[in-house]
Amino acid sequence: MDQPLHQRDRSTPPSAPGAPARAASCFASRLERYAKLNDDEFRFIARMEDNETAMPKGALVVAAGTPAEELFVLKEGWAVARRTLPDNRGQVLRVYLPGEVIGLTGLGLSRNAHDVVMLTSGTVCPFPNAHMTAIYDKAPRVAALFTAISGLDQVSLMDRLAVMGAGTARERMAHFLLDLHERLLVTNPDLGRRFRLPLRQVDIGEVLGLTKVYVNRMLKAFTEEGLIEIHRPYVRILKPEVLRDLAGYENRYDDVDHSWFPAASRNDL
Amino acid sequence: MDQPLHQRDRSTPPSAPGAPARAASCFASRLERYAKLNDDEFRFIARMEDNETAMPKGALVVAAGTPAEELFVLKEGWAVARRTLPDNRGQVLRVYLPGEVIGLTGLGLSRNAHDVVMLTSGTVCPFPNAHMTAIYDKAPRVAALFTAISGLDQVSLMDRLAVMGAGTARERMAHFLLDLHERLLVTNPDLGRRFRLPLRQVDIGEVLGLTKVYVNRMLKAFTEEGLIEIHRPYVRILKPEVLRDLAGYENRYDDVDHSWFPAASRNDL
DNA sequence: CGTCCTCTTGACGGCTTTCAATAAAAGTGG
DNA sequence: CCACTTTTATTGAAAGCCGTCAAGAGGACG
């Protein structure tokens, strides 16, 4: 994030022709975990990934203040939404993992509220906001699914706010590690307790509102206490229960309610 | 919030028969500020306020962990979403003002994520989640409007997260005062710079992640610097620009994008 | 007029930051 | 594959913002 920000690279490697196989993508597999979709609905969703765009590390995917014209499905790599405050202090507002949607938040706004920056190289799939019209009109079930996911995001954000407001550095760090782990498990259920964490300690500091020095001290403490194990860039969670108690962490990603979803889509596309 | 929490009072004073006049409520007037609605659409929304329930100060509107079965339109009074952490520390996740919707966030979850407590006495209008089905099915424009509002809420939450993570006590306080003021202006455009703030200093502390002692010191400092004026329970903002610079505050509530909303509702209710 | 709640103010202490310097790791070019 | 450079991680010492503790003042309400 200290690197110069590259311009967006629009080169689109011609994606495989024809509809992709079901569940070919981390995005679709994430959605299907939350609700069964019929073929028509799946077609709407597949369309969101038609356009792949490669992004180098450090690239600015979304620039704050510019017109908000598209969403992005993050297909590979990690990204962050970030805000720079007056004094050059930065705060990471959200970490985006593969399979998550960037910009769902800002659907209601005409300008992008925050920067979104690639933490690693990766690929995103831009999807014009304008296409949402058809989804709301013709695939209400998919629309409801987006609403549900947006709600999940928001609850997760509120949990984070709680730990940022009332929590100590230890609690924030524990929450951070557990939350990333749980979210990685959503699209990657057979991931063990070890995962790749492509953030520098400075970056973790910007997520948690701590300095890099203190981040280092917390990580050292956790390691010495046998709670985690670090082999850069991999982290292994050794005592999830202890961390969970420490942070008061609660997993929200398993608890989707689709009872109120419209029964099925109209087929008049 | 230190008071014992009352049980929810289900006594429903028989509301005026027939549909309420358009824009009779702060909720409808807030929605209409964001998008024009036709009569059918308006009927859906009016239905959300059919059921008024009086709430005493301190009442628990939503209990964390219980099944999430309804949304609430907050018609009168103020409320907060609140989380209690292990050590009895509390964090207010959000302040709800009249005209705002409680529980839109949790639409995707089957259990309520957080408590919601009345700060003052007031009235709420419960609205079963199940009724959202019809809205998504038959009034996609209204559904889109909810999505947009939920997005606004989330962006506002992210701004708050930024100031909680990277901001000092002064900056948090400035942000808090400005944000409340802007949000009150949404449903009450001719409100001046003076408004009623029905929170004790302890409560403000729970919003900002500060102790009541430090809240008191910040308010004193602001007053002495001529930034605000306090005549309990009223606050007047004397130098909005200075506060705005201090907090890096940006008003998001004026910037709704409805370009992607479906053109009009189907009329087949 | 007394009780309770909230606000106010001071002194002290601790968690976290800041400053600074070194070590380790990662990237670069020969 | 090895010097060299740059970035990142590590560690110590001192300072600061904010929390804790405690006591008193002011208001609301019966």
From TrEMBL, chains A, B:
InterPro entries found in the cross-reference section: cNMP-bd_dom, cNMP-bd_dom_sf, HTH_CRP, RmlC-like_jellyroll, WH-like_DNA-bd_sf, WH_DNA-bd_sf
Record's keyword terms, sorted: DNA-binding, Kinase, Transcription, Transcription regulation, Transferase
Keyword Nuclease: no
One GO BP annotation of this record: regulation of DNA-templated transcription
Domain Cyclic nucleotide-binding: 33-107
Record-linked SMART domains: cNMP, HTH_CRP
Superkingdom of origin: Bacteria
Name of the protein in its database record: cAMP-binding domain of CRP or a regulatory subunit of cAMP-dependent protein kinases
Lineage, highest ranks first: Bacteria, Pseudomonadati, Pseudomonadota, Alphaproteobacteria, Rhodobacterales
